[in-house]
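for the recovery benchmark. tokens below, seq after
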């Protein structure tokens, strides 16, 4: 299972009732955080995200509301006893950005592993998780991310018991390895498994104009988290000029890409009542939700 939380849903500046946009994804006690704007450590605490579980930080781009909270956040991790490495992934320029920001946080209790991504669509693997990334269209280089968990086939204990397989071999078989029993029989995983399960896919795209490549990138996502700076249709062209999307664009993309659920986030600080637009947006894509700080689900 993947636990997903949005500790913050705002854009540009933090507000009293809305922290800056970030996304927390946790699997088997290890967590991935997307973006780290001002006050992220407070937003995480308010949302009951255990920062001691953090293993990887993904940065979409280097505007302040997505990266300026890094020094304080790293110091908070250290104060919470972190000693294991933290992997930080982002567009080209990451090493320079991190080096500059950590001038005011020069001593950390844990090492940083920095991975700069070339400006192309690709993927990398971290444990059981596949992280795919897509260049978006913003005023500076910016990535969208998809986090995919390929699940193991279902293990069938009835089949295993019918074959008189000792229970200490169950986990080995479930992991896809054959075993040899004391009576000489070779047991193949397919003899006790019940087929392939669909992967779990979560996609996160903010700070971008709508681009054609996003449709295939987020296709069939279980959860698509996409920006909506404004709900007002009259602001469509203004937002496009600034490299952002409005509610209806995100909803149309979710519909065309056949995602299962859409969360809107990254609201403008001037958008105080996003709920006034939700009825019209659900006419485009019915399974749309207005994200709020602390929204959470388990997939």
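predicted aa per position
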């Amino acid at each position: 299972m993947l636990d997903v939380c949005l500790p913050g849903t705002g854009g540009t500046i933090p507000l009293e009732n809305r922290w800056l946009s970030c996304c927390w994804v946790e699997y088997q006690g290890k967590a991935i955080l997307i973006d780290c704007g001002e006050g992220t450590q407070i937003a995480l605490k308010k949302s009951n995200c255990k920062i001691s579980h953090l293993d990887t930080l993904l940065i979409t781009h280097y505007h302040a509301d997505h990266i300026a909270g890094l020094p304080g956040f790293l110091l908070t991790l250290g104060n919470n006893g972190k000693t294991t490495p933290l992997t930080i992934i982002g567009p080209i320029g990451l090493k320079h950005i991190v080096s500059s920001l950590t001038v005011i946080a020069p001593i950390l209790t844990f090492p940083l592993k920095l991975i700069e991504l070339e400006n192309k669509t690709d993927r990398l693997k971290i444990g059981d998780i596949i992280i795919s990334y897509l260049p978006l269209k913003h005023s500076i280089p910016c990535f969208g991310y998809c986090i995919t968990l390929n699940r193991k086939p279902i293990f069938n204990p009835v089949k295993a018991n019918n074959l008189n397989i000792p229970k200490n071999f169950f986990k080995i078989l479930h992991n896809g390895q054959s075993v040899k029993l004391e009576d000489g029989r070779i047991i193949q995983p397919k003899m006790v498994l019940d087929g392939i399960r669909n992967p779990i896919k979560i996609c996160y795209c903010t700070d971008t104009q709508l681009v054609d490549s996003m449709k295939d990138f987020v296709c069939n996502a279980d959860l698509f988290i996409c920006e909506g700076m404004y709900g007002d249709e009259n602001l469509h062209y203004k937002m496009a000029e600034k490299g952002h999307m409005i509610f209806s664009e995100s909803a149309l993309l979710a519909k065309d890409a056949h995602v299962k659920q859409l969360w809107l986030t990254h609201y403008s600080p001037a958008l105080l009542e996003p709920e006034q637009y939700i009825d019209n947006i659900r006419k485009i894509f019915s399974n749309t939700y207005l994200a709020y700080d602390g929204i959470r689900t388990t997939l």
